[in-house]
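thought: fold this chain, then report.
action: predict
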Amino acid sequence: MIWLAGFALLCAAVPALLFLVNLLAYRPPSPAGRADKASAVLIPARDEAGKIEMTVRAALGSGADQVIVLDDGSSDGTAGIVRQIAREVPRLRLLSGEPLPAGWCGKNFACAQLAAAATAPVLIFVDADVQLAPGSAVPLAGYLEQSGAQLASGVPHEITLTFSEQLLIPLIHFLLLGFLPLHRMRRTLHPAYGAGCGQLFVADAAAYRACGGHGAIRARIHEGLWLPKKFREHGFATDLFDATALATCRMYQTNGEVWRGLAKNTHEGLGAPGVIFPMTLLLLCGQVLPFLLVIAPVTSSVRLLAALAGVFVLFPRLIAALLFRQTWTGVILHPGAIVALLGIQWFGLVRFLRGRPAVWKGRAYPVRGRETLD
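observation:
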């Protein structure tokens, strides 16, 4: 048992220490940063009538030179709301999305149309549930110049209200900072180090078009992972920044949406067949096992090692809750959050192996044959 406790301690300590090191590199864009290039905020929207006005007005207040919204076949009043605002603000443009072609995911096709319509040299892609902070377009665009990257991404301040949101959404920061070495990411262009948050991307328009943009990943659901990889395949640098003060997002509204939303792209990320087995072992041993050993009938030495591992587990979560304004539910129930996350990943893998489609926004996306980029 002492060896098991030692292994649990190792599996807990490595991501915890990497998390702390990464905090030195994961910084917000400088508020004093200036962007010499014009920017366009691009918003794909499908059935977002309840959110789109706040998102559009926030984008208009961000200081961007242009705001373009694409109505992706909405069946509610999304287009009408945007059209009304456009009558007041000439900088706002509404596009009607073309029918979705075979082989494309809806969001990728919408973003490709938005990018084609934009004339600004800096493209800021935001989801329809992301509200940019006032004046944020300047530091966002300026970050490309500061970092030397051609694509950058940040995790907004995530609003979490339901139990599932509070349990699972904060794991975005934990997984990103605990398992991706940011200093190494910035020293190499290897695609394996490509990562981002699909809620917010800032791209150099010329580099975006040179690598094919969203058209190069048309069949991928997890564009937050695959768009940076595609940039890196073409020799362009990608980077990550803290967007907590620059944007706000509420990803999902219900417990059911959390499950479906996180499950839709698992087979392209943590739940991929070649990834899920080692990650399950690492996460269970490092994030769950220490707490089981603490309450198990074991020797004092085993319990001491397990308790130390538990400290390594919870310390990064405590720091993240303070820095990124997360609720304490996910911190207190962290082992349960890990088990729930892995459950979603295995559900996605089983669905993938059975050839069952992922369904989102009323569209079904078959998963077989998606392993290779076009």
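thought: worth noting. The CA atoms of residues 294 and 303 lie 5 Å apart.
final: tokens above.
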